[in-house]
Specification:
InterPro entries: Endonuclease_MobA/VirD2 (IPR005094). The protein is α+β, with helices and mostly antiparallel strands. The chain folds into 2 domains: 130 residues, no CATH class; 145 residues, 2-Layer Sandwich (BirA Bifunctional Protein, domain 2). It contains 13 helices and 6 strands. It has a 6-stranded antiparallel sheet, sandwiched between helices. Helix 1 packs antiparallel against helix 9, helix 2 crosses helix 10 and helix 9 packs antiparallel against helix 10. The protein is elongated, with a radius of gyration of 22 Å.
Amino acid sequence: MGRDIDGLLVQWGDRLFYPGNRIEPTDPTPRLKARAAAIRRHISAQIRRAPQVIVRVAGGGRGMGAIADHLRYITKSGALEFEDDRGTVRDGKEALRDLMNGWRHGSRFIAEVEKLREAVNIMLAMPSGTDPEAVRDAAREFAKIELAGHRYVMVLHRHQTSPHVHLCVKRESIAGQRLSCGRPDLKRWRATFAERLRSRGVEAEATSQIARGATRNFDSLWRLKAKDEGRLKTSIRPVKTGPVCERARDEAMACWGQILKALAASELESDRELAPLVADFLCRTPYIHDVLRRHPEALPEARKRLEAHPQRVAALDRAGPEWGR
């Protein structure tokens, strides 16, 4: 029975937490146990609402003019310390000018304006209250793993609400390969950053919004920068909508339902104790809240749980779709 439960947790947990990955056949091996333990850790982290890492990517500069502007922005024109891919830490306008000249005249000359983006801007962040030094150390290890062979500059910003690190990365590596920045890369980058934080004792997760039942739409890096500079003239929708999102959310909740059944049927007392906590977590997600608003007759168990806590219903009504993000 224990092996069956582990297999079910891995089967549905993989689909929930690692979408797009190939689901391997479950088998009674030590590897299955380890994978089931990892899924249980993910489940517990969601219930505790563990801090989620933030990894944002902007297009970067088309030429040295745009790259230099971004380097001046993240370093505050040299006022903040910056660290390069060789581990050298410097500050000051002269050091920043020397760095930019090195990038311009490096392995391949970068003109003031180029057709292709010659750099990519990455931001790694954690919520307020996280140790900034831990964020910087995790970002340093992240860069060594994910950006190996590329020139980059890393700057810690601790003066704003949440500690975060800006990385400006040369798109072309020393070997002449261009850095891939697609959706799969972003997912992997989030997972790597979270793992590096956990290795330092910082609780961090890289779970997708879909798996968390969240619906909030977040500003991209360029929008945040424009907002800081007072240049933002339009706003985005606060909630992600559309058939693709709805389908993905439905599939995620179906996976959670199967996980809940497996935990409730487990021989392990710890699993059975986890099951009602999972049910409560699901009932409090913005996704379920939205379903209950649109279909009052649906999900009677969720409605029963919510009605047992009037203060929770009031909080939901106040916060709307942003609640529980």
